[in-house]
Amino acid sequence: MKRSEQHQAAFSKVFTTLGMKVAEKMDIQETVPWSDRITGYDKKHFTLYMKLLNASSDGTDEFEMAQSIFGVDPVVSPEIAKNIVGSHLARANWLLVEGYKELFAG
Questions:
Q1: Phi, psi dihedral angles at 61 (to 5 degrees)
Q2: Cα separation, 24 vs 92, whole angstroms
Q3: CB of 80 within 8 A of CB of 72?
Q4: What is the pLDDT of residue 101?
Q5: DSSP, res 76
Q6: How far apart are CA 9 and CA 16, in angstroms?
Q7: Residue 29, class by beta-carbon neighbours within 10 Å (0-12 exposed, 13-18 middle, 19+ buried)?
Q8: Distance between CA 32 and CA 55 in Å, rounded?
Q9: What pTM was computed for the model?
Q10: Max intra-chain CA distance, the chain
């Protein structure tokens, strides 16, 4: 098993062990699969991205976003909380600044 597969398996186990079903049900990855194009993952999680942007603009800290949006307990899993919020917020910002252009191309 590759390191990334091991990490994803461990991530899934943490969600299951700690009862964090929110992100699991939404099929959320700890880090967003990055592309310079809008992906299926982006389309599937567009509402989540908007929630993150809204929370961020309201000054919500990353641990509170991890808890309320992803269902990740930042006290139990601070690294996962930081990674999941940081990755998805970065992608949400990319969509806001660059990705949206793809929606209007054509």
A1: -80, 160
A2: 19
A3: yes
A4: 83
A5: T
A6: 11
A7: middle
A8: 18
A9: 0.75
A10: 46
Nearest to 48 by CA among 33, 64, 68, 34: 68
Number of CB atoms found within 10 A of residue 31's CB: 16
Task: Convert the pLDDT of each residue in 57-73 to its tens digit.
Answer: 999 999 999 999 998 99
Please give the structure tokens belonging to residue 22.
Answer: 């929110």
Could you tell me where the DSSP H helices lie in the chain?
A: 3-18, 21-25, 40-44, 46-57, 62-65, 78-94, 100-104
What is the distance between the alpha carbons of residues 106 and 34, in angstroms, rounded to a whole number? Answer: 23
Write the Ramachandran bin of 60: left for phi over 0, alpha for psi from -120 to 50, otherwise beta. Answer: beta
* 1 within 8 A of 9, measured Cβ to Cβ: yes
